[in-house]
Specification:
The protein is of the alpha/beta class.
Length: 394
């Protein structure tokens, strides 16, 4: 063995010089996948065909000249140079130019499949079912070890304490994914395991998400009697089961929020009303305490006396005034009665007879008022104050 050896850096440098020197200009055609726009403004992606894949990058200053928006599944033609990134020991195409070469095999296949499903009515709005307002059991069809399931469980635990979650495990990519996902959806419906289903996974390339655009999964979602929320990938990702589901969520976390929205809102409203009730009651009780504070037992009698004493004095004064008024009125009426009695007595015949007057009547008992009405020989009766006298007129 040759004793002379190279460091990894030296070896990588030789490889870089060889590749970059031999491929200072390349033109390649392939299908775009794993397209990601970094915060720096650079576009990182992969180009692939049926047999191989190569990483590529297009820097921000070159992106400005593009007349289209790069998307996964597009068939692109790029021009640039080959570059080796020493820290990772990887190589990629640094693209200077990019143009669309075709619509892409995957996108073309998905578009055709989408049109067929739509023609069958699997995406019709009339098929959509509303989500239950207060689900008690939520089912999740996804990989049990994936980040999507952890996100869903964290959201539901934080928002809706007490809701049961059933994980229906299934692979989310690969040849076995589609039939197992469809089988889990049908099993949940057959046994009526849950009130609502979340079907999805975390983000990935267009190829990674193909299972959720398969014929088996789309039909299982469309035929489900249990409302289904599709939560495939990130917000920019999509799958055909999104169109067949009763509701599409941009992410698995958003799906958890959507299925628990009504219960969470109701709990927030109840908690808010409870806080308001406690605040109002505390305020009223504090106001009552402030109002009652001056009225301690030792001071109550004095305060009642200070309130009642003026009224009692006023009542006594009024009573005295009333008694005096009644007495005066009684004396006045007594005087008037005495005066009336005197007047009546003065006009009474008996009073005149007391003074010596008498009443003279004829034989028929009629009072003689005129002497001319008496004839000689008439019998007369004279009635003084006491007794009677009989006489014959001459």
């Amino acid at each position: 063995m040759n004793d002379k050896h190279l460091t990894i850096t030296e070896l990588t440098e030789k490889i870089r010089n060889c590749l970059e020197g031999s491929f200072s200009f390349v033109m390649a055609e392939g299908e775009l996948s794993n397209c990601k726009l970094a915060s720096s403004g650079h576009l990182y992606f992969s180009l692939k065909d049926s047999g191989a894949k190569i990483d590529a990058v297009m820097f921000k200053n070159r992106l400005r000249s593009l007349s289209f928006e790069p998307k996964d599944g597009q068939l692109l033609r790029v021009r640039g140079s080959l570059s080796v990134y020493a820290p990772r020991g990887s190589y990629s195409i640094v693209c200077e130019e990019m143009e669309i070469a075709g619509s892409g095999e995957i996108l073309a296949m998905l578009e055709k499949r989408k049109q067929n499903f739509a023609a069958e009515g699997l995406f019709d709005t009339e098929r959509k079912k509303p989500l239950p307002r207060f689900p008690s059991v939520i089912g999740v069809v996804s990989s049990p070890t994936g980040a999507a399931v952890r996100d869903i469980l964290n959201i539901l635990e934080r928002r809706t304490n007490g809701i049961k979650v059933i994980i229906l495990p299934a692979p989310v990519q690969g040849d076995d994914a589609a039939p197992l996902i469809a089988a889990r959806i049908r099993q949940a419906n057959f046994w009526q395991l849950v009130d609502v289903l979340i079907v999805g996974r975390g983000g990935g390339s267009l190829e990674d998400l193909l299972a959720f655009s398969s014929d088996e999964v789309v039909r299982a979602v469309a035929e489900s009697d249990i409302p289904v929320v599709s939560a495939v990938g990130h917000e920019i990702d999509w799958a055909l089961c999104d169109f067949a589901a009763d509701l599409r969520a941009p992410t698995p976390s958003a799906a958890a929020e959507l299925v628990s929205e009504h219960l969470s809102t109701a709990m927030e409203a109840v908690n808010s009303l409870a806080d308001t009730f406690v605040t109002v009651m505390n305020t009223r009780m504090e106001r009552a305490r402030l109002l009652l504070k001056p009225f301690d037992p030792a001071d109550m009698e004095h305060r009642f006396r200070s309130i009642l004493q003026p009224r009692l004095v006023r009542m006594d004064d009024t009573k005295e005034e009333l008694v005096m008024a009644i007495s005066d009125k009684t004396a006045e009426l007594h005087s008037r009665i005495k005066l009336a009695s005197a007047v009546m007595e003065a006009g009474s015949p008996l009073a005149a007879m007391e003074r010596g007057f008498s009443v003279v009547t004829d034989s028929d008992g009629k009072i003689i008022r005129n002497a001319a009405s008496v004839k000689t020989g008439d019998r007369l009766t004279i009635k003084p104050m006491k007794g009677e006298l009989y006489a014959i007129a001459e």
